[in-house]
Amino acid sequence: MLNCNQYYSSRIGKVVIDALNQQLRLELSKIFGYYAIEMGQHLQHTSWLQHSRIKNNIAIYSQPQLKQKIFQTSVLNKNKIHRLKLVSEPEFLPITFDNTDLIISSHLLEYSHYPQQILREIDRVLTPDGHCFLIGFNPFNYIEFSRLGLDRLKNYTKPYPQKAYQAYSSRRISDWLNVLGFEVISIHSYGHRPNINNSQLFKALQCLDSIGNYFAKYSGQVYLIHAKKTDFSTIATQFWQPHRLIARKPVIAVTSKVRK
What we know:
7-stranded mixed sheet, 10 helices, globular, Rossmann fold
């Protein structure tokens, strides 16, 4: 089971945070609105909404996060951003319908028993044409393969245990978003080089990140999905009215044959 705090405290985790900050700085500068929400495991390390133009921000924490040290940033106060802190579960957000313009969620789907319910809540609170950013661990990388191998070796005499943690691929999450009526705008992947203790060798492998961004977009350790809510979800949930689809009376074409 991957620990977000240990991962982002490592050398490769800090590189991934810098790459995410750089990408979100470009993406969030183009998004405007009234309310923005961020929730997930990143709140103890950084705040992605410091790059947003939306002034009214809401940070949603879970009960275990309150017992840990929460990251406090001074950038939010410099930009005169109004920040509200709430305690809630991601499966049941205390937000009204169609009232949020931007949502950033990090590492919530893989640690939840009901990941699709989290996506439904995001769809519920987002306004039409609202944006959401999903950050998570990619199951197709060497960290996941090594974790699964070690777990199976430790429990080779017992059935494979069912844990709360389960990483989902970016393509699978994109399919879930398409079903809800979202339009996936972009998918990025970060963390293509291994976490090595040798700092010189770690810097020498920096070329793997640039190569992976072009040739192996789905093989990084962390993915970033940018999706936009469309009106498809409201159209698809309308009450089915068969009289608009089927004619009440059959239409028969009658032709007359003229005899000579």
